[in-house]
Amino acid sequence: MIERLLKLREQAKQNGEPILRDKSFELLIKTVKEKKPQSILEIGVNLGLSSIAMLKAEPTAKLSGIEIDEKRVELIKNNYRDFGVDDRANIFLGDASEILPLLTGKYDFIFLDGPKGHYYEYLPHLLSSLNVGGTLFADNVLFRGYVDGRVKTPHRFNTTKHSMENFLREITTSPNLKTTVYDIEDGVSITEKLK
């Protein structure tokens, strides 16, 4: 089962799909196994491969995903069926900016891998949807090396860079949160909601 999933990840990479990089993927699965969440929210589902991996890592969890691309939703549902997790996963089709403020559920674990320029805008909604003791796992937080200044930011990415800087400042300085930033691949942050 896991071999088939890894094979699909390899195919997706070769097709240029924006999927979670290998070390970040391993860290995601390790974190899910450690935290044992019962309710997961994923922003930016893409092909559903990370969802499947999280649901396989925690067999009692249920997952809700937000995906803006209508063409992908059928593909995601097919992948969920193929891996036998379709009874534990559901998809909201639409823009996370519109869907997040309407969510009424609470989640133990949120995987954020949507549009990078919106992380800061999403944050208040994510934190209000996250249970105390819950985990926010965010990918791409160092955004191509622009955020920590290793790489000069092209003008067109300034807005995204500033949004990510605000997001990182908020999650690393809030007394209600405990955050670790991992300098792997494009950067990962893991935040625990303390209160």
Put the structure in a nutshell.
The protein starts with a helix and ends with a strand. It has helices at residues 2-14, 22-35, 49-57, 70-82, 96-99, 119-129, 158-173; strands at residues 39-43, 62-67, 89-93, 107-112, 130-139, 177-182, 188-193.
What radius of gyration results from the CA coordinates? 16 Å
Shape: globular
User: How many independent structural domains?
Assistant: 1
Q: Which stretches are low in confidence, meaning pLDDT under 50 for 5 or more residues running?
A: none
Order of helices and strands: HHEHEHEHEHEHEE
At CATH level 3, the topology is Rossmann fold
Strand content: 15-25%
Q: Assign a percent range to the helix content.
A: 40-55%
| Highest CATH level, the class | Alpha Beta
What is the CA-CA span between the terminal residues?
A: 38 Å
- CATH superfamily, by name, is Vaccinia Virus protein VP39
The averaged pLDDT comes out at 87
What would CATH call the architecture?
Answer: 3-Layer(aba) Sandwich
Largest sheet: 7 strands, mixed
Strand order of the largest sheet: 3-2-1-4-5-7-6
Describe the 3D structure:
Helix content is 41%, strand content 23%. By secondary structure, it is an alpha/beta fold. The protein has a single domain, classed as Vaccinia Virus protein VP39 (Rossmann fold, 3-Layer(aba) Sandwich), CATH 3.40.50.150. Strands 3-2-1-4-5-7-6 form a seven-stranded mixed beta sheet, sandwiched between helices. Strand 2 (62-67), helix 4 (70-82) and strand 3 form a beta-alpha-beta unit. Helix 2 (22-35) runs parallel beside helix 3 and helix 6 (119-129) runs parallel beside helix 7. The chain is globular. The N and C termini lie far apart (38 Å).
